[in-house]
Amino acid sequence: MRDLLSIRDLSRKDVEGLLNESARMERLLGRPQKLLAGKIVAHLFFEPSTRTNLSFQAATLRLGGSVLPFYPQLSSAAKGESFADTIRMVDGYADALVIRHPEEGSAQEAAAIASHPVINAGDGANQHPTQTLIDLYTMQKLKGKISNLRVALVGDLKHARTMRSLLYGLALFGVSPQLVSPASLRMDRGFLREIRKKFGIRPEERGKPDLKNCDVLYVCRVQQERFASRAEAESAQRAFRITPQMLSDAPRGMAILHPLPKLSEILPKVDSDPRAKYFSQAKNGVPVRMAVLKKCVP
Ligand code: NCD
């Protein structure tokens, strides 16, 4: 495989292979690896990031590669250089490019220009394929399977690339999750049609989650940076919150996941609930991204 731009680039078999490789990488953590020795991976983050940026860096370093960092505010992008020209330059300096950008389709655009592999670390509201692999890996690790899991996706389904990618990833395994959001933040209609047609799954759209028979509650924040108005974002933020009371009805074995960062959609009290697994989910970012780098970087 060369580029990883969208979760659509992967078949179920590819995903299963990457999850197995991630488990192998996790077992090898702490033992120095040489797979990327002599290779330079450019990390181009045009949008804020903590986990994705740092775990991609850690994954590159753990495989023995070097990181070429990029700081948009200190680069010629701040002088107005085009994205295309920046990519052309970096392609000459590195063996692979990891890119996060606020524009949908930017990773695709970069891949059309670059001669080296491009990995999409999030493009606008569109796709975040490596996060989906982390989410699926975490579910498999916690619940022993992905097929037949009862999953609720809760939050800003309109703007969150994590949710769009994950819905597709779950559909690959025949899972029809509950889609829970305020009416104004429902999943993109075109994407939902694509999933229904391709996989024959029928996700149920709801205003409130039904947690009584839920294996995985997956929450994301309101993506305020993608809203036209701040007031609208704030009112959406108030519309749903995961509280300890809400969780009192949920099964004891349910896992609560979140791609992080979390804001007010999960009350801090929930962190001490043994079902809250989002910090170990974030930790899985390193082995999963090691597996992705191994597959993409020649
Ligand atoms: C997510 C993202 O950037 O899309 N963060 C991440 O990569 N873990 C989720 C978010 O910002 O809400």
Description:
The chain has 298 residues and is α/β, with parallel strands linked by helices. It has helices at 12-28, 51-62, 83-91, 106-113, 129-143, 161-172, 189-199, 230-239, 244-247, 278-283, 285-296, and strands at residues 40-45, 66-70, 96-101, 118-123, 151-154, 178-180, 204-206, 216-219, 255-257. The chain contains 11 helices and 9 strands. Helix 2 packs across helix 11. It starts with 11 loop residues before the first helix and ends with a helix. The structure holds N-carbamoyl-L-aspartate. Residues 51-52, 122, 128, 131, 160-162, 220-221, 223, 259-260 line the site of N-carbamoyl-L-aspartate (NCD).
Topology overview:
Elements: H1 12-28, E1 40-45, H2 51-62, E2 66-70, H3 83-91, E3 96-101, H4 106-113, E4 118-123, H5 129-143, E5 151-154, H6 161-172, E6 178-180, H7 189-199, E7 204-206, E8 216-219, H8 230-239, H9 244-247, E9 255-257, H10 278-283, H11 285-296
Parallel strand pairs: 1-2, 1-3, 3-4, 5-6, 5-8, 6-7, 8-9
The site of N-carbamoyl-L-aspartate has 13 residues, from α2 and α6.
Class from helix and strand fractions: alpha/beta
Number of helices: 11
Give the mean pLDDT.
95
Ligands in the model, by name, code or SMILES, are: N-carbamoyl-L-aspartate
Question: How do the strands of the widest beta sheet line up side by side?
Answer: 7-6-5-8-9
N-C termini distance: 9 Å
Give helix % range: 25-40%
Task: Give the tally of β-strands.
Answer: 9
How much of the polypeptide forms β-strand, as a percent range? 5-15%
Radius of gyration: 19 Å
Biggest sheet features: 5 strands, parallel
Shape field? globular
What string gives the helices and strands in order? HEHEHEHEHEHEHEEHHEHH
- Low-pLDDT sequence parts: none
